[in-house]
Amino acid sequence: xxxxxxxxxxxxxxxxxxxxxxxxxxxxxxxxxxxxxxxxxxxxxxxxxxxxxxxxxxxxxxxxxxxxxxxxxxxxxxxxxxxxxxxxxxxxxxxxxxxxxxxxxxxxxxxxxxxxxxxxxxxxxxxxxxxxxxxxxxxxxxxxxxxxxxxxxxxxxxxxxxxxxxxxxxxxxxxxxxxxxxxxxxxxxxxxxxxxxxxxxxxxxxxxxxxxxxxxxxxxxxxxxxxxxxxxxxxxxxxxxxxxxxxxxxxxxxxxxxxxxxxxxxxxxxxxxxxxxxxxxxxxxxxxxxxxxxxxxxxxxxxxxxxxxxxxxxxxxxxxxxxxxxxx
Amino acid sequence: xxxxxxxxxxxxxxxxxxxxxxxxxxxxxxxxxxxxxxxxxxxxxxxxxxxxxxxxxxxxxxxxxxxxxxxxxxxxxxxxxxxxxxxxxxxxxxxxxxxxxxxxxxxxxxxxxxxxxxxxxxxxxxxxxxxxxxxxxxxxxxxxxxxxxxxxxxxxxxxxxxxxxxxxxxxxxxxxxxxxxxxxxxxxxxxxxxxxxxxxxxxxxxxxxxxxxxxxxxxxxxxxxxxxxxxxxxxxxxxxxxxxxxxxxxxxxxxxxxxxxxxxxxxxxxxxxxxxxxxxxxxxxxxxxxxxxxxxxxxxxxxxxxxxxxxxxxxxxxxxxxxxxxxxxxxxxxxxxxxxxxxxxxxxxxxxxxxxxxxxxxxxxxxxxxxxxxxxxxxxxxxxxxxxxxxxxxxxxxxxxxxxxxxxxxxxxxxxxxxxxxxxxx
Lengths: 328, 426
What we know:
The complex is a heterodimer of chains A (328) and B (426).
Chain A: H1 2-32, H2 39-58, H3 60-69, H4 75-85, H5 87-117, H6 125-146, E1 150-152, H7 157-161, E2 165-167, E3 171-173, H8 175-197, H9 199-209, H10 211-216, H11 221-247, E4 249-251, H12 256-269, H13 274-295, H14 300-314
Antiparallel strand pairs in A: 1-4, 2-3
Helix pairs in contact in A: 1-8, 1-11, 1-12, 1-13, 2-3, 2-5, 2-6, 2-11, 2-12, 3-4, 4-5, 5-11, 8-9, 8-11, 9-11, 12-13, 12-14, 13-14
Chain B: H1 2-22, H2 25-29, H3 44-66, H4 70-95, H5 103-129, H6 133-156, H7 161-180, H8 206-212, E1 214-217, E2 221-224, H9 227-250, H10 253-263, H11 265-270, H12 275-301, H13 311-324, H14 329-353, H15 361-383, H16 410-425
Antiparallel strand pairs in B: 1-2
Helix pairs in contact in B: 1-16, 3-9, 4-9, 4-12, 4-13, 4-14, 5-6, 5-7, 5-12, 6-12, 10-12, 13-14, 13-15, 14-15
C-alpha cells in the first residue's frame, strides 16, 4: 500500500507534465486536424530556454560571463543571492524563468505555424504530418548543433534546502513534485476557464467546430489558430522547464518520448477534447508509474506505446470523445 | 499517312502475335492477365543511360579499392542499404499511400532474424557449403520481417493515415526497446548478436574471390576483393533485383489497386478493389525489403546491436522517399544518394584533404545534414510535394480482347497505335 501510494504520487507529478504537453496536441488537433509532431520539440526548446534563464538568475558563473559581455547586465551579480536563497526571490525567479520560457516558445510555435503549416492548410493531412516531422527534426538538430546535446540544470539553493513533504509518515513528496503538481492544476484550471468562459475561447471552440462557418461569423481564423499555436507551445515549455528541474537534465532529444506519451494521453482522453487531455495525462502518468513499479521498469515505455496502439485500434474516439464517422 | 498506318499496324500485329503466343486461355480466365496494361518498358535513351550508369557502378569499386579509398566504399554500402530500405518504404508510402514511421522495426527484425538463422543454418550445411547460407538467410529474414509486417497489418487495417503513422512509430520503438531488454535471452540485449564464440558464415564465394582476384597496375593501383568491395557488389545485386521486382509489382494488378487506393480509398472500394488485401500486401512487401536490407546490414557489419534502429533513422529513410519523390524509383535512388551520400562525402573529404584526422567533422556534418533534412522536408511539402523526381502519371489503357466486346481486337489496336507509332519514330 505504501509502495502503491508512493507510485501514485510520482504518477500524478509526471501525469501533470503529460497533461500540459497533451493540451498542445489536442488543441491543434481539434482545430487543424493535424498531429503537430513538432510539439514535442516545443517541450524540449522550453526546457533549454528555462535552463538558460535559470542560469542567468541563479548561476554565478553564467552571470559572470553575461555581465562581462553585456556590462548593463551586471546588476544580476548583486541580485543572485536574493533570487536563489530567499522564498520571495525564488518565487519571482520562477515566474520570470517560466514566463520567458513560455512566451519565447509560444512565439516560436506561432512562427512555425506561420511558415511551416499555414501554406499546407488545404493540402492532404499526410503532407502536414510530414512537414511537422521535418520541423521536429530541424529543431532537434538546431539545438544539437548550436546549443549542445545535454545541459545539467542547476538546483536553486532555496529549493535544495527544502525538506521533502512527509504524508502519513511514509509517503515522501519532493518539493519540486509538489510545485509541479500544483502549477499543473492551476494552469489546467485557468486554460479550462479561458476556453469555456472568454470570448476568445468561444472563438476557438467555434473554429474547432467548423472553420469556414466560424470565418463567416466574423472570427479571424488565422489569429485564432495563431493563438492556439501560442498557448500549446507555451504550456509545453512550462512542462519542459519543470521536466528539467525535476530530472536535473535537458537533452536535445528529450522531446520524443514525453511527446509520444502526451499524444497517447490526448488520444486516451479523446483527441480534440481539452478535459480529456487533462484526464488522459494524469491517467498515463499513473499507468506509467504503476507499470514501472509493478511490472518492469525496462518495459515501461513499451507498455505505454502498447496502450497507445490498443486505444487507437479499439477506441479511437478515446474516453471522453465521441467516435467520428468518416464521410465521403 | 498510309506509311505510318502500315508501320503501326505491323508493330501492333507483331505485339499481338507475341501476346497470343504467350497468353494462354487459362491466363485469360484468371482475371484477364492476357496482357499487362502497362508494360513499363524503358525508352532506348533511358536504356542507354541505365546501361552507362551500370558500367560506372560496376567499375567504380575497382578504381576506388585500387586507389585505396576504402572508407568511401564502405559509405557506398551504407547508401545502398538505405536505398533498399527506402524502396521498401516507397511501396507503403508511394504506391499504397500509407505512412510508416517505424521502418527501423523491420530493419531490426531482418537483421536479428539473419543473425539467429545464419549460425544454425551454417552448422547444418557443413564447412564446405556454409558459404551458401547467406542467400537463404537473406530470403528467410525477409520472410520473417514480412510475417511481422503481416501481423502488424492485421490490427491497423482500419486506421486512418495519421493514426497509422503514430502506431507504426510506436511499433518501431516497441521493437527497439524489446530487443534492448533481451526477452527470453534471444537478442542478447545491448551486447548484440552473434554471441561471443559464434562465428557468422562467410558469404558465397567471398573466400575464393579474396584469394584469387588480384589486379595490380603500376605502383599505385592494387586491387583485391575486400569485404567492402564484396558487399558493394552484393548489395548492388540485391538492389537491382529489388528494383526489378518492385517495378513489376507496381505494374501488376496489385500495383493498380494500390494506385486506386492511394488516390481515393472509398472510390476504390466502390469499384471493387479489395482494399484490405491491397493494404496487407503493401505492408508485407514493404516489410520484406526492410528485412532483406536488415539481413545485408547484419552480414556486412558482422554483428548487430540495438543502437542503429532508432526513430531518427526511420525518419531519415522517410526523408529519402519524401524528398526523392514518393512513388518514383529514380527519385528514391537519387534521394538516397543525396541524403546518405552528403555527410559521408564530406567526412571523406575532411579525412583526406583537410589534414589527416579531420576530427569529428563527419559527425557534425551528419547533424547539420539532419538539420537541413528537416528544413527540406518542410519546404518540400510546401513547394513541391511530389519530390525531386516526381512519380510519372501512368497511362492505363483498356484492352478489348474478347472481354469488352471487340472480336478482332480493334480497340486493342487503336489503343496500341499511339505509343507504338511514337516508338517507331524513334
